[in-house]
Design goal:
About 20% of the residues lie in helices and about 20% in strands. By secondary structure, the protein is an alpha+beta fold.
């Protein structure tokens, strides 16, 4: 008389990954800080956030009707490899990747951003 009981929603569940990946409060604050600076300069106008099973994406736009100018991605599967944070340009070119979001976001600093 073996009964199959469902796993409780606590730590003993078979999958310890969340249903979707999201930015935490500090990460989102750092991203929105850069976004606000770029909006005040008139470079960016709109953004979108996507929370998927394998990654979280913050996309920035010059106009709402265009393709994303840049994507800031968080992919936890790459945490122990290249780093879970990256900035991706149109066409899929990875501009910067790393373990620390603040360091990755420095790609948008004044001196470096002019050359992109």
């Amino acid at each position: 008389m073996n009964q199959i009981l469902p796993f409780p929603s606590g730590t003993n569940s078979p999958s310890k990954r969340p249903a979707q990946v999201a930015f935490d409060r500090q990460e989102l604050s750092a991203i929105l800080n850069v976004y606000g600076q770029m909006v005040s300069k008139g470079d960016w106008k709109d953004y979108a956030m996507d929370f998927l099973r394998d990654k979280a994406v913050f996309s920035v736009y010059r106009r709402a009707s265009e393709h994303a100018l840049y994507r800031i991605e968080k992919v936890p599967a790459l945490r122990k490899k290249q780093g879970q944070f990256s900035v991706v340009a149109p066409g899929g070119l990875v501009l910067k990747r790393g373990h620390d979001l603040q360091t990755v976001l420095k790609v948008f600093d004044k001196a470096r951003f002019r050359s992109l």
